[in-house]
Structure formats: structure tokens, C-alpha cells
Amino acid sequence: MTKDSLLAELRSIVGAANARVDTTETACYAYDATHYTHHPDVVLYPATTAEVSAILTAANRERVPVIARGAGTSITGGAVPIHGGIVICSGRMNRIVEIDTENLTATVEPGVVLATFQAAVEKLGLFYPPDPASLSVSTLGGNVGENAGGPRGVKYGSTKDYVLGLEIVLADGTVMRTGAKTVKSSSGYDLTHLFVGSEGTLGVITQITVRLLPLPEAKRTVMAIFDSVEAAAKTVSATIAAKVVPTTLELMDDVVIDRVEAYRPCGLPRDAAAVLLAEVDGSQQGVARQVELVAEVARNGGAREVRVASTTAEADTLWAARRGAFAAMARSRPTIIVEDATVPRDRIPETVARIKELCLKHDLQIGILAHAGDGNMHPLIMTDLRDREEMARVARFVEDLFQTTLAMGGTLSGEHGIGHLKKRYMEWQHGSVGVEMMRRMKQAFDPNNILNPGKLLPDQGEAASDASSLLD
Amino acid sequence: MTKDSLLAELRSIVGAANARVDTTETACYAYDATHYTHHPDVVLYPATTAEVSAILTAANRERVPVIARGAGTSITGGAVPIHGGIVICSGRMNRIVEIDTENLTATVEPGVVLATFQAAVEKLGLFYPPDPASLSVSTLGGNVGENAGGPRGVKYGSTKDYVLGLEIVLADGTVMRTGAKTVKSSSGYDLTHLFVGSEGTLGVITQITVRLLPLPEAKRTVMAIFDSVEAAAKTVSATIAAKVVPTTLELMDDVVIDRVEAYRPCGLPRDAAAVLLAEVDGSQQGVARQVELVAEVARNGGAREVRVASTTAEADTLWAARRGAFAAMARSRPTIIVEDATVPRDRIPETVARIKELCLKHDLQIGILAHAGDGNMHPLIMTDLRDREEMARVARFVEDLFQTTLAMGGTLSGEHGIGHLKKRYMEWQHGSVGVEMMRRMKQAFDPNNILNPGKLLPDQGEAASDASSLLD
To answer: Whole-model pTM?
Structure first.
């Protein structure tokens, strides 16, 4: 079959207006939030599961890569069509199919934007906790593909903790349904969770059923300011050890505080070494007690000042610094790289110290803007992509960081996934046997390797040895 | 290799005293809580992962079945060595390796008894929610294998919601580690959850890391008595719709009430049609508010009486009926079969009505002792295994029940697994494509089919057509 006749077939499936090959359009699907870019050959906007199925049947027959894409906010190259092929944009599959207030579940198409979904459930007094920073644009399909997290992960986990069932179009076009609309199920292998975080490499998700929670009655915010980043880091695990699990527990170090105050002052003391920002939620009375406990642990941990918001407006003021932090950092240098290694919570002080050492070792500017409560360290590396020598140092920093955090029982990624960027490190975490078993999963679901090829698993023979390859 | 030389090899791995072939010993590993029985050829009691690895290396080479076994409390035939072979008993691998109060995690060997583990974490103010009725004897390894649930599933889910990582010996003896000691991880395919609920068919679990919660500060119990089982059933979803998620929400129907009062009177009115029993937990103030709400919803739902326990002793009195219910039912007839089909919560009234209809249709005595809050209906079928004609009616009841509950978006099993008993129904829930993909998972991990063969997946060509085969 010629390329033209495949294109004609794809056009007949989705309609000519929904199959685009012009470079002005393909350019919009060539990137994600990394520096990787590659144009797809064609962008398709199917509206139904049947259309997705027909697309995959054709693509599988012709061995053409298929990349399912949400909003393209991934920061590991996960959404970039590095081998070209077909991008399936979920934009037209954006219906909230059902919000079930009796079962506390919802069913959505993959293109639903997270913020839209959260607003819809919150209007009904319900709550969908995952809150990646990209929530105003990122889609539920993308969130499931990457197992997205966010600050609330401390108390509420990540996307995987909410997905009950999926409709998936497999590589050959077959439609499979997994899971059930029940909070408990023990019926065969858990294929649902195999797909959560699989980054579009095992199938194309066309419908998602999630569980919801009642919206907490109240929430409160506390900020604690420290003269030592170590004291702030120790306070994180001391908080958890005190049996308080805040909704969020964020840490900003001196580098971040300095940039925030330089960019848009929020009243943070520029001589502070670190700030912890916590939100608690629950019943009215429950949050009052939790706020007291968080404040007490922070004071005992050496906080020089603890601010408790008594109104929503005051809470907003405290959160302004955190919300503006990424933008403030991004103004400092041409390129900002967000690392995502995650450690067990009690290793945070050690990890913070190690990151500071590695900054000096590799002569880099790095701020820490961590979801500290769940050990998701998020060092922000301020650099310049055009400077190959500095980028090589960045790559060596990242390697050192992974070796440190994996040795502590941590993970390569807390919430951003593996994508293209981190696949060469997979054996470091999972060993050759883990990677081999993952390869068998890929082989079982996508024998022709058409689904988001070149992602999540290392290429055969690819190793983490060449540090400068972060630039590749 | 002869059978004798394999036995000699196995003895050399675990020590002669830990390899038993005498029928007095093999008889203890021939059964579970179903009527299936089959002696293993040998029972091994390894003490270390290395020993398990050596056993599997030998068994895989010789193509001998291996059945990993905890306490054998499964009620689907899951633990029965139906094709003989080697039973690996986890009894000597029963160390609590670590309870980490800073990370709120614990790591255990598979033979740790759940009640022992829960007592150990509760002493530290921590909480591991899964609470199958078998908890005083069942093991964490068995719980992970079956994805065990329990009454607290309403609020806290089941075992899968707590497992963070596993150490697994694969079929060929290779040791694999999955997951991380972090609450968030998005690093490759989620092999951890593929193993939870896999019933020993993909590998032998040798270490388990779970997350823990802070022990709730307080809990309270409410009982509501109804003149109509439909009203009680409607109150279940009305409670959830009122945005109260109790820890447990149990339903007993008139059949169960009658047997309980006949066996060991607990003060339940014998003319009542149903009783709902709820426990709520949280902060002191939070539970007071939740109790009020649960009581209010029950009254609005037509409860003729609502009893709120104000002391622990009063709560114990209310729970006595529930705790004694299974024993009371078991005294009624020679055989009691616990069904495990689970439906979305809003379908409970319809499901209860359907179960009552099916009782009449198939002329069976059935009581409902449901974890109603999560839709886990648990009809208890009082029958007699020796009566082939009645057992054939039981089988037809079960088929009708599955067809009803699956059509509602439910699942074959909420918490007991598939095992040998339900494998013939797998296609009804998962379709031929779902079953085919599960077969590929099995093939990928256990190409020689040595791990708990004949469980979870239907035999090739096996269908749910011959209802009387429940007796096979």
C-alpha cells in the first residue's frame, strides 16, 4: 500500500477535515515540554472509539507508528512522535460521559481537560484529587498515560489510585474493556493498572472510569520558615511521623525563595534557607487540630516563623509564592529542566544535602521546589540548552542524582513518567530482569511495535553510560 | 531426572525436615475452604528467597507444578494443588522485616499472619486497613495473591490499594523486585499490580512492601433496622450519595437475622426485614458528625429504629450479631457457599431483589450478609454438597447471578478471586479479548505453565455452559 492510499484510508475514517498533513498543523504536534521535536506525518482527530479502532487496524497492517496525544505537556518526550507516523489527538473525544453521584464514579473520554473535569465534579460536592501543575490544559487521557500526580499526592496518591476501569483500543484495532465500576474487584490479572503509566505504548485509551471522593468540608494552609534547609527537610518526615498526613507539603529552598522575591515579591524573607507550605483538609474540626499539629511539629523542628492562614484570602497569599515559583525560576536562564526522582520520605534531608553537593560538584544552578511530603524532590536545573558543555554537566548531575535516589529505595519518576528522556536509566531501577519482563508486556500487547515506539523501554543495547546523550 | 532425584534435590535445598511427602502432611495442603481437594506430591517449607529461587529453578527444569500457599483460606479453590506437584508453604517466611514509622510503610515476608501484622502496626499508632474475615489466620502473601478485601473496603479499598512493591521469584528462579518505597512512582509498567490478585500464577512472592496510614483517632458504630430489605438497600447508596463514606456498611437480611437469633440471640428483632450496620472513623469530632449523618439518612430511608453505640462495649454488642452471622448460617445446612459477585453501589436494591427472585426460581435457601457499602453482595447459599440435584440448582443460581451482576457493570469477584471455581466465567466479564490478553501475561511470565496451573484462566475450550460442573 502506498503512503497516499493509507492517507486516503485514514481520511475516509475520520473525515478529510480531521486528517491533517500540513506542516503548520503537524508542527503543533511535534513537541512536548522537553526540547525533543519531530513532526508526525499526519495528525488525526477521531471522534469515536470505532474511528480509533479503524485507525489502529490500518496502522498495524502498514506498520506505521501511532502516538496517542493529550495536551502534550509531558516533560520526558513521551508525547513526541520521534519516529514520525500518526498522532491521534484526543481533542474531539472530550465528553464527560457520566458523573455518578450514587457510586462516586465518573466516566470520561480521554480528551477531557482535567480542570474542566474537576470543576464539574466539585460542583456536585465531589473530588478528584490528582492535580498535576498542567491541570488547566492537560487531559485525563494524558494523566492516565503518565500516571500523573501533583502536590496532593502526599495524602491522595496519584492517578493510578483513582482509575477503576478503561476502554482501550489495542494495537490491532481490537477494543478491550478492563476493570469494573466497583471499588473492589479481584477478577483476573489487573490489566487496568498495567495501562496506567504505560505512556501510550500498549494501547490507545478511549474511555476512563475513575472513582471520586466526597469533597472535603474544609482546608487550611500553614507556612513555616526555616534558617536551615536540613531542618525544613527533617520537618517533612517528622510531620508524617507525627501521624499527620497533610494534603500537600511543599518545600522551597533559598534559591527558589530568592528568585520568587526578585520576580514578584510575596513577603518571603530573602535570608531564609527554606520554606515549607502545607495544606490540610478534612472536617472543620479535624483541620483545626491538624493545623495545630503541623505548626507544632514545624516549631519543634526549628522553624523561625510559622504563619497559619485564617481566611481563604490569607491562604491564597501564602500559596502565591509557590504558584509563581516555576515562572520566577524560568526567567533566570534560557532553559529549565525539572527532575522528578522521588525518595522515601525519611531520606529527604539526605537527598537535599546531596543535591546541594552535586550542584557544587557539577557547577550548576539548581533550586529545589519539591512535593516534599511524598519525597518527589523536583530539583529545577537552570541551564541553557545551547551550551553543550553545560548540558553535559546537567546529564552527569542527573545520573548522580538517580544513583543516589535509587540506592535509597526511590524511583526514577514520581509522576512525570519515563518517556524518551529516562528510558536509558530503566535498568538501574528495575534491573535487567524487570526490563525484560516489561519488554514481554510490550511484545504481548504490541508485537509490531507501532505504539509510541522508542519510549519507556531502553532501545536494545542502550545504556546510561554516555552522559552527554541527554542532548540526543 | 527421576522423581526420586528431584526430591533429593529439593531436600538438599530446604533441608530434609522441611520437605515432606508423607500423606499425613500432604493432606494438610490438599484443601482450601471449598470442596476441592488434591494432595501435592511434596510440601516444602523454605526459609529464604534463595531457597524459593532454587526450588523454582528445579521445578521449571522438570516441568513440575508449584503452588505457593499461605493459610489456605481461599474459597475459590485457589490454593488447592489440583494437578499435584510442589506446595511451597510460606510458614517459615514469616518475619516482619520492617515497620517504618517515618515513611508509613512496612515490609514483610509472605507468611506473616494478617492479625499479627495489624497488631504490630497498631501498637505504633499505624493502620493497615484490609480486613478479610480470615485475618486471624490468613497471611499477607495470600492476601496479595487474592487481592483480599473485607468490610473496610467501602472506605479503604482492598489489598491492591496498599501494595507499593514486591520481591518475586519468577518461574525460572530469577528474582525480580518491583515498585519502590514511595507513595508515588511512574516508572515503566506497573508490574506490582499485575501480581496483586494473580493467585500465584505468575511468580512466587517472597517479600511485600505496603503503605500504612495513621490509625484513626476514633470510630463509632450505628445500627439501623428496617421493615423492608429494599429500603435498607436503598439506604446504602443514599448514604454514599450524602457524601458519607463509612469505614464499613454491612447488610444482613431476614434470613440471616433469623438464624443469628436462633443460634445466639443478639437482640435483633426477628420480624425485621434487614439490618444495616455501619462503622465510621476519623477525628473525634469528625465521627460525631458522620454518625449523625448516617443515622439521619437511615431514618429518612425508612429505618424503624436506629441504634447509635455510645461506648465501645455498646458497639461490640451491635457487632456481635454480624460477627456470629456466618457461624449461625453454617449451622443450618451441611454446606455453605459464599458468593462474591460485586455490583456498583446504586444497583444494590435491584441486586437484592434479583437474589430473592433467584432463590425462589431455583428453590434455594439463601441469606444475604453483604459488604453492602462496596456492593459486595455475599449471598450465602445454604446447601448440601452430597445432593447433586440441589448443587446443580446452586450452579444455575450462580450463573444467573453473574449474568445479572455483570450486566450492571459489576465483577465476578470483589475480594475472593477466581481460582478454580470461577475461571469458566472469565469470558463473561472480560470477553475473549480480555482473556486472551491475560493468557499472554501468563505466557510471558510462566511459559511452561508450572505456577498454580489450572487457576484464574479458563482451560482452552472451557466454557460456562455446563452448570452442573460446579461439582467437578
So the answer is: 0.96
